[in-house]
From TrEMBL:
GO molecular function: DNA binding; DNA-binding transcription factor activity
Domain HTH lysR-type: start-end pairs: 14-71
Record organism: Xenorhabdus cabanillasii
Classification via CDD domains: PBP2_Nitroaromatics_like
Protein name from the UniProt record: LysR family transcriptional regulator
InterPro entries the UniProt entry points to: LysR-type_TF, LysR_HTH_N, LysR_subst-bd, WH-like_DNA-bd_sf, WH_DNA-bd_sf, YidZ_PBP2
Organism lineage string: Bacteria, Pseudomonadati, Pseudomonadota, Gammaproteobacteria, Enterobacterales
Pfam families linked: HTH_1, LysR_substrate
Length: 313
């Protein structure tokens, strides 16, 4: 039998799930992580990988200490497989008219406190002013971004700190960027930026409204062979500010959050941090299955407008 015909017959036996397994293994390099992202058992992921290996007559991924490393054939295949998956995922649903004044709609949003404090109030103000029949259910981050729930449209939007990779079957867009400032209670003693040495020695309150117990500050300090002194871990920004009052400690806050709360905490002052400390970007992610849904399109536009308003203020 002609080799190309034999290969074509093998490939015909592959399904969408097998291609998803291939793509996510290429991105995450871990059977365990892929099984969680795709909501599959590890044995199912392994079974799909074996089918892929048979179809392409190649190991595709080699299990090393550093993870599942792609073979040369996988590197060649990834672009084509990603394109196939994207086209399948983008098969849109029929468009219908959406009227927020007349259609009762509940949007479920996975978002950190940052988004709740800055963007949700702007959206809610519009809802009240225009008497829209819109409600929000906000899910706060715990351990991991629920990519599979977003893809399955159980969650309409995820608001996350920009990541280096997203699952192929999700759409994403950058919506906000921000920088961190050091916040203190009491009168300012100096306007000099915080040095790395000060940043590592000052006792700090750590607000943890995100997914992890550390943040970009800790990762950045680690690159400089040092770490900061965390005295208290707070549940969020407001909690951290209450703890900061009349203390000698410091809290790192996004500048936009500080501008939001400073009028309620007149005794606060800030110091800029080391100029090389990186900022962060916030991304909005959603399922391509709802990309053409008029309600989804409407809310995406409102979120972008609200972010533009925050940037302009």
């Amino acid at each position: 039998m002609d080799r190309k015909i034999a290969l074509r017959q093998k490939l015909r036996k592959l399904d969408f799930q097998s291609l998803e397994v291939f793509y996510n293994l290429y991105i995450y390099r871990s059977v365990t992580e892929v099984s969680e992202i795709l909501s599959l058992s590890q044995s199912t992921v392994s079974y799909s990988l074996n089918r892929l290996r048979t179809a392409f007559d190649d190991d595709l991924f080699v299990n090393l200490r550093s993870g599942m490393q792609p073979t040369n054939k996988s590197i060649v295949l990834i672009e084509s497989i990603e394109d196939i998956l994207r086209k399948i995922s983008a098969c849109g649903i029929e468009k219908k008219e959406f009227s927020p004044q007349n259609t009762e709609t509940v949007f479920t949003i996975f978002s950190p406190e940052y988004f709740e404090m800055l963007i949700i109030p702007i959206l809610f103000k519009k809802i009240l002013q225009e008497e829209l029949k819109i409600r929000f259910e906000v899910i706060r981050p715990e351990n991991k971004v629920p990519f599979s729930m977003i893809y399955e449209q159980k969650i309409d939007f995820g608001i996350v700190v920009k990541q280096s990779h997203y699952p192929h079957n999700l759409c994403h867009q950058s919506i906000l960027s921000d920088q961190l400032v050091a916040v203190f209670d009491g009168p300012s003693r100096t306007h000099q930026p915080l040095s790395i040495e000060e940043l590592s020695k000052l006792k700090q309150i750590f607000p943890s409204p995100w997914l992890t117990n550390n943040c970009m500050v800790d990762n950045w300090l680690k690159k400089h062979d040092t770490q900061r002194s965390i005295s208290i871990k707070a549940n969020g920004y407001y909690s951290a500010l209450r703890m900061l009052t009349s203390s000698e400690m410091m809290v790192m806050l996004p500048k936009k959050i500080y501008k939001k709360v400073v009028s309620q905490h007149m005794s606060l002052h800030t110091r800029e941090v080391h100029q090389k400390l990186p900022g962060f970007e916030l991304d909005m992610i959603w399922s391509p299955l709802s990309s053409n849904n008029p309600a989804n399109i409407w809310l995406r536009k409102q979120i972008i407008k609200a972010c533009q308003e925050v940037n302009a203020s």
